UniProtKB/TrEMBL annotation:
Region of interest (Disordered), ranges: 149-169
PANTHER family: BRO1 DOMAIN-CONTAINING PROTEIN BROX
Signal peptide positions (record): none
Organism: Handroanthus impetiginosus
Name of protein: BRO1 domain-containing protein
Amino acid sequence: MVKYWQQARDNIMNLPLANGWGKKHRLFLKWKYMEAKAAAYYYHGLILDEGNTEKSHAIAIAALQAADEYLKESKRACEAFNSSIPLSRSPPLWGSMKYLSEKIPKDASRKVRINRDPYSHEKIMKTAPILPDFALALKPDEYQLPPVHASWNEESINNGQLDSNKPKE
């Protein structure tokens, strides 16, 4: 998910979204990208914590703390998204993010308490392990839009050419 949201973020920067919705779209992508990174670091941290070495536990702690930081950043991005024009209501958490918003802070603080290793935000992001690089599973198919139907032609509508469905007087 991180790669897909990253691609979306990178590609939207190249689009001319000057109709007022551009900022909202960019904030949405930032929000979802941060959520994906939080989830990725959380699960990566859990996998690393399964290791039997002290180093794997230290890296797991760094990953869980990074997940917590990305979760906080995603909440800020969500607030920014909802407060940008046009205003929207903040949706309630549901699904995997509801679960992760409860688990990430709890597991991250528990691991730090166990190991008595307080980190600053800068140190967390510097010591966060690199996420494994998996090949993308989905590739979009080429798609051609169908031709515009004649009913979309304003002149045809104004001239009454497409009024064949109207009852005749």
